[in-house]
Design brief:
The protein is mainly β and 534 residues long. It folds into 3 domains: 168 residues, Sandwich (Jelly Rolls), CATH 2.60.120; 245 residues, Jelly Rolls (Sandwich); 86 residues, Immunoglobulin-like, CATH 2.60.40.3080. The strands form 6 sheets. Strands 13, 15, 16, 17, 18, 20, 25, 26, 27 and 29 form a 10-stranded mixed β-sheet that branches. It has a 7-stranded antiparallel β-sheet with strand order 14-19-28-21-22-23-24, with no helix packed on it. Strands 1, 3, 4, 6, 9 and 12 form a 6-stranded antiparallel β-sheet that branches. It is globular and about 85 Å long.
């Protein structure tokens, strides 16, 4: 059998199909929260409604010096980490709520809470934290580095004795104070309709040396606003290698202080502004970059609608210009200002909010200009998610998606540039944005030809609405049923024990469309079929 299987970590399974989550808004399933030498309040008003978390209520974590302070909860049925092994949560760690010099980190520990000394069964994952911003942290007990208290214990995915989750901030064996806020605790749910963007469709790795690859990039140099650029910017953009070049596997965009005349106008600064000759709708963009320095510098990694009417823009010259800004939509993946050196921001510009938009969020990146960081946009039909090095800082997901809030159902193209603000420091001479790569991913496509059916099973009804009945000639053993959509994503995964050769699988949560199903039996055999959800 030939089949593409993309294993998506967001899956949930327990022996009684329990859901384990808490958003602290009253609809969670966790009812056993307990503070161990640590204060907690599961109904605390969110003091930082910003970034990726604008919810009203959170858990307050208040460690006032307890040597082993933590919060925890128990579940009714043990976790089966062999199939479902990931937990996530959001956390805000304010610098004002800390004492001492502990590493800023969060631990998630799994234990057997049914015994008198549960800690001896412990398996732990530790993740670093950034101060003063909401961040989402994922603990993957299959792929992350874990610590077993008992070094002779099996790997966590081979164990079935865990029923307690312990959360600890900034370690133990200390008496320092920690105040933190936690939200959206989740043992991943079994159904996900979010796209998985894993197919690389366009990239520039900036190999070679010399001029920028003209097959990928267009130098936008024409002054669009009466001898100037928008926002009062004071630079000329040029196509010279002085301002943009490739060397050693990197692209450098160089902002310089120099007198330069072009198009009948003389300016005191030059830079480069690149338009991608690739436009796309939906996907994941990853750009690894090191940012410039200097008060008044304004580097950006961003997109505009392919349909923008902007004189001198690449797609305008190709005949696509039909819509003015901001109706064309703008996505700022990364913006940085030299007068706020350690902060990067993402923002959305639409007819509903543009210019000094309300739709924005960012995070502190203390090494933005000394190290490379990966700036990521995940753009789906439902939302935009922005992150740096995997740490999310902003999600744009308007409740009403129309031309006013969501002109993002049409192609956008990438822009890379350094603008110079009127406030540029008079001592500024030059600085560069250095880019290692630009990569765009979209969904993989799973064709019917890539999926072979097996006649050892039968199923009905087809199309199905609420429940799929599956009959097989195999009995008295376990099987794992995976439901796969046409893009190749495993969106549902559940374990069954075959007693009467039949499986009854609930399909109510599936969207309408075609799906593939795979049954993996304990004896090693695999059966598959395709079906339609009505």
């Amino acid at each position: 059998m030939r089949c593409i299987l993309i294993f998506f970590i967001c899956s949930l399974f327990s022996l009684n199909a329990q859901t384990v989550d808490d958003d602290f808004e009253g609809s969670g399933t966790i009812t056993t929260w307990f503070g161990d030498d640590c204060g907690l309040n599961t109904n605390y008003d969110n003091p930082y409604q910003e970034g990726i978390n604008t919810s009203n209520t959170v858990l307050e974590y208040a460690d006032t010096g307890g040597q082993y302070a933590n919060v925890r909860f128990d579940v009714g049925a043990n976790f089966d980490l062999s199939i479902n092994n990931s937990f996530s949560l959001k956390i805000y760690l304010p610098s004002s709520g800390l004492t001492g010099g502990q590493l800023n980190q969060i631990s998630l520990k799994l234990q057997d809470g049914s015994i008198s000394e549960p800690w001896i069964t412990q398996s732990e994952i530790i993740k670093p934290l950034v101060l003063d911003q909401w961040q989402e942290v994922i603990f993957d007990f299959e792929n992350d580095t874990y610590i077993n208290l008992d070094e002779n214990s099996l790997p966590p995915i081979e164990r079935n004795d865990f029923n307690r989750v312990v959360i600890q901030v900034n370690g133990e064996n200390n008496n320092d104070f920690v105040l933190a806020y936690i939200d959206d605790v989740l043992y991943f749910d079994s159904e996900s309709n979010d796209p998985v963007y894993d197919n690389l469709v366009w990239a520039d790795e900036f190999d070679g040396s010399g001029a920028v690859n003209s097959a990928n990039w267009f130098h936008q140099t024409q002054l669009p606003a009466g001898g100037s650029w928008y926002n009062g910017e004071v630079q000329h953009y040029t196509h010279r290698e002085d301002n943009s070049f490739v060397s050693g596997g990197f692209l450098s965009i160089v902002a310089k202080k120099e007198t330069f005349n072009n198009q009948g106008y003389t300016k005191q600064y030059t830079s480069a502004r690149l338009n991608s000759k690739f436009a796309f709708t939906y996907g994941k963009v990853e750009i690894r970059a090191q940012l410039p320095t200097g008060l008044g510098t304004w580097p950006a990694i961003w997109t505009l609608g392919q349909n923008i009417t902007e004189s001198g823009a690449y797609w305008e010259t190709q005949g696509y210009g039909a819509t003015s800004w901001p109706a064309c939509g703008e996505i700022d993946i990364m913006e940085h200002w030299g007068n706020n050196q350690n902060y990067v921001q993402s923002a959305m510009h639409t007819p509903s909010s543009s210019g000094n938009t309300f739709n924005k969020g960012g995070q502190t990146v203390s090494t933005a200009s000394t190290d490379f960081h990966v700036y990521t946009l995940e753009w789906s039909p439902k939302k935009m998610v922005f992150s740096v090095d995997g740490v999310k800082h902003y999600t744009y997901n308007p409740e009403i998606k129309d031309a006013n809030t969501w002109p993002f159902d049409a192609p956008q193209y990438l822009l890379l540039n350094i603008a110079i603000e009127p406030s540029i420091d008079i001592s500024f001479s030059q600085s560069s944005m250095v880019i290692d790569y630009v990569r765009v991913y979209q969904e993989s496509v799973l064709s019917e030809e890539q999926f072979e059916e097996n006649e050892s099973i039968s199923f009905y009804p087809n199309p199905v609405n609420d429940e799929l009945h599956i009959k097989t000639n195999i009995t008295n053993q376990d099987t794992v049923l995976q439901i796969i959509d046409v893009s190749g994503r495993v969106i549902s995964q559940k374990k069954y024990h075959l007693n009467g050769k039949r499986i009854y699988h609930n399909t109510q949560s599936l969207n309408s469309g075609m799906y593939f199903a795979t049954l993996k039996f304990a004896n090693g055999s695999i059966s598959s079929f395709k079906f339609i959800k009505g």
